[in-house]
Amino acid sequence: MLATSWLGRGTGARLMRYWRRGVWVGAALATGALTTVALRTGGLGGTGPLLSVLGFFVSLAGLLHTVRQPPVTVPADERLDRAADALAAAVRAQWRSEWRLRRLQDPEPLAVRWSRAPAWLSDLDAAVGWPSRDTQRPDLTGRLPDISQVFGYVPSRRLVVLGAPGSGKTVLAVRFTLDLLDRRTADDGVPVVPVLFQASSWQSDRQSLHAWLAGRLVAAHPALGADGPSGTTLARTLVESGRILPVVDGLDEMPEPLRAAAVWRLNTELDAGAPLLLTCRSTVFAEVVEAGDVLTSAAVVELQPLRFEEAAEYLVRTARPLRGPHGERTTAWDPVFDRIRRDPGTATARCLRQVLSLPLMVAMARAVYGDTGHDPAELLDRPGLATPEALEQHLLDAFVPASLRTSTRWPAEDAARWLAFLARQSERRGSRDLAWWELRSALPRPLRAVGPLLLLGAVAELICLAFWAKGADVGVPVTAATVVLGLCAGHLALGRTGAPARRLLLALACVVPLGVVVGALRPLTRDLYFHAPFTGMPELLGWLVVGPLYGLSVAAALAATGLTPAAAPATMPFPVLRNRYGRWVWKTVGALTTGVMTALVVASLFFTAPGSAALVSGAVGAVAGFCLVRGEGTASAEQAVRLGRRSGGQGRRFGRALWQGLRVGLLTGIVLGIGFAVAEGTVSAARAVAQPEFPVRGPVHLDADGRRSVLAGDGTRFGRQADGLRFFVPARPLHGGLVDDKETYGESPVFISDYETVGDEPCTAASRCRPYSAVMEVSVRREDEQSGDSVMVRLPDGRSMPGYYTDEVLDRRAVRWITREDAPQLFTSALSFGLGSALGLGVVAGFAAGLHRWLGAPVDVTRTPSPPASLHTDRDTAVVRAFLVTFVGLSTGISLTASLPAGMSYAAIVFLPVGFITLALSAWGGLLTARLWLCPSGRLPWRLMAFLADAHERGVLRQAGAVYQFRHARLQERLAAASPDRESGPRSG
After folding, report:
1. CATH of 76-303, one of 3.40.50, 3.50.30, 1.10.12, 1.10.8
2. Which of 57, 115, 493, 715 is buried deepest, with most CB atoms within 10 A?
3. Global pTM?
4. Which class for 741: exposed (0-12), middle (13-18), buried (19 or more C-beta within 10 A)?
5. 420-450 pLDDT, tens per residue?
6. Residues 6+ apart with CB under 8 A from 97
7. DSSP letter assigned to residue 536
């Protein structure tokens, strides 16, 4: 509706839309033209700053234009009503689907009955609102179809439903939810939205009722995590405004110490008149009341056991028909029930009658015998099933194989083992949810946090080892290993939730000691070409220090911006990738990415191979990527786009998220950069102060012009000018040539050492060069950070000029002397390098944080993500975020290093891994690691999500938003209690 009205604003609106598109198209064309010119002229390194400036202004213009868009003003009550309507539609669709999957409509659910519970379990009649005369009090006795009507009889609109395990409390809660939603849809004056909540997820000792309800709403319906009219989340606003009717199922499934706290919170935090339906086991609720209090203003009813004839009629009605001796219709259950009716006093008959009084066991018996054709007579004939406990365990154990009996993809024994493993993991976490992003908790403790990083490091190490095998320096694989080591160490130390200030202080506490180590180990000289604190460091020392430092710096930056705690799945759908062509988009992207990467690796490893070899390898990689990448479309793409427009301002949200991310990222980068730079600069400056004034000992000679010098034993004289500049005079003459070529060198003349072996033409008096040999003074002329330093020579006649290649023929000790920096210079260079690096890393980390905020924000209010859809959305988000972070990182790195030799290479080495790191730290990356660890051992199938979806369709699991749950708590408990030896069976899947 909003989109239609927007389109109807007239020609001005359409022109504005075309203008906005034109801005971005023009920016893309300008950037592409500039890049093309730079590539053709070979001047890409010099155009780095220009590209950065252009990208900055284009981004700024787009951001300002997006922010300037007028907000879509919707009244607060209307927005809440829309959200409530959308939530009601989503909840109704979800539980209607679950109702069908449990076959509760085939032919109809068991007619569960209830009656009033003992009076001492409920509140006073006056508190409930009952009339003073019993004759005017309505009868609470009823059957399953009457639950919403009986709830309406209670004046306080609070009802507690008790029953034995498996007595049908959850089915009643679902039926109550659907009945109220149907009345709401029929506009019967029921404005609230009934939502089913599992009490087992409530930490009532430290979590308030409203916070828990809002958190579960956001988990099941992520769009409700958006900002509401009151400043809190939309879910919290719906709860606090009374638009949610909590249907709290399974108080007995909470840990015992939390049950009384849960009832206390319900009594103290629910407003007067706030409706509630609560289910619990009868014995557990009696213990809670004895230890604490009743539920305020609540009436209490108790489910009654099924009558034997009701259970028998249901099983006979749902069983496969058989032909009797005279052609009559019969079933496998008829002889069993006839024996029980003829001889009801036997132990086996009494046992079966007791077990079939529970609706859960009736459903298990239907699945095990009525749907499979197995003979239920064994329930009376097998000696091991003579007790109710043994018979219930038999039905629960046989339910999974019976449900998956027709599957040709999952062998029954393997499926039972996989489900038992998942049930044990849920029991260990104390949860009923099977969340795919929590499977990493099944990994050994160290791998839970760093498993994805180790997987990424293993891939990078294999690539580096391949380069080393082809002749690259051994430092390549060593540096890769040390980077992964530093990254994992930083992630373990910093990858925890907490306040941003605390994370920043922890990151600073890790970076400062590294600055001290680098300051203590780095050389005190200044490189002539690349000004960085690590320049000149011994090679092995550089491998062992720079790698961990880089890994820890990235981990610290990501931790301080909030990207490294345990990843939760992203929830923003991508309409472009979620339409009917989405699978082909993904396959195309996978083919192009895999093909290009394969071609680059082949071209890099085999330099002598012709281009056709790289092209063929790239084509093979493209075909493999096309086959491996899977993409699923969804029919809700148009709805997501429409609701995204209705929410008003995806661009504004992107602008706010990017601004917040860059603000945090730049602050983090500056703090960490200053911390490292001050530590490194202070230690290196202190070392410089402690160094002797001259590299050799001896009497100090003072010249008339204020220069001081010391003569070494080999005749070399080391000195310092009055302004502090270092110089030395070698004992032997320097041989070379004086070249007068201002067009080439910019100055004239210049001294080139050993010119006769370097130049293309002989150095003769007839050319622009003449041979020259003399004892001359050598020093270094300080330039700016971009131009580097120059070696200067002073001839005996007093002329000074640049000396090219002179540092390559001089004694290394003498070169280190003239390039040594004083304490102020060391501190200044360290601070400059630290701030520059921190700025680049801060921009990349901030951009990643902004994308994380924006892509993690949902837009579709009615969209209830299934577990597979949640996984696909998180994968899409992770890939897009990694691509954008890599692009921004490379652009920033090229801009910062454009004037340095091999600047693009340095930028790629430093910033390219950041995008892959953000991909590894996503929830999808964690699942990939868990699968690679658990699937080869047979504990889970390779096609995990397909297996879970199949188990859900067959009724073994139920869906609650983006997670699965076992059909019943008793089924999960029974599977979890299965012997781990069952996991040693045949492995497939």
Report:
1. 3.40.50
2. 493
3. 0.69
4. middle
5. 999 999 888 888 888 888 888 888 877 887 8
6. 959
7. T
